[in-house]
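User:
Note these tokens:
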Amino acid sequence: MANSTVGSVSGTSDPYQKFQGTVNNEKGTLQINDYFSLLAAQLANQDMTNPMDNNEMMGQMVQMAMMQAISTMTDSMNNSSVIATQTYAAGLVGQEVTIVQTEENSYGQETAVGVKYGKVVSVNLANTPPTIMIEGDSKEYPLSYIMGMGHLDDPYAEKEEGEAEGPDGGNSGENGGSEGPEKA
């Protein structure tokens, strides 16, 4: 937490008199209440022969109102995103998924090496992002490890010589062949 003192903003009878305010938040920035405290101090201590310009004061108030509105909107969007992610994760329970299997490489990074198939049995919403568990596996997987719904081909498996790929690069339809032309 940052603690700081904010000096005087405009001329006063004593130019060395300072307005004492504190900034107590994690980013060390002023909040709307701090702005109003500074504005009140500035108006109370302004030089009567050179008063503060009304247009400048209105401009500052509009800027603060806009910043507060943007901050509120950002918080709302973040909350909405979290709720959407949690709803999606909860909807996966009982669904068959294809999960990426990883191993740690020599640099300490997770590298995809294969896939695993399973039915989602639980979702842990306490983690950020939520994690899932599949049937018969005690490991929790983040949502980003889900390759898709259902049983997808393993793109990490080595193809043997003579193994033919389907017309779409190996992802043939459910019947094992192409599905034919689409009807409009």
Q: What stands out?
A: Confidence is low (pLDDT under 50) at residues 169-184. The first helix runs from residue 32 to 44. The CA atoms of residues 168 and 178 lie 8 Å apart.
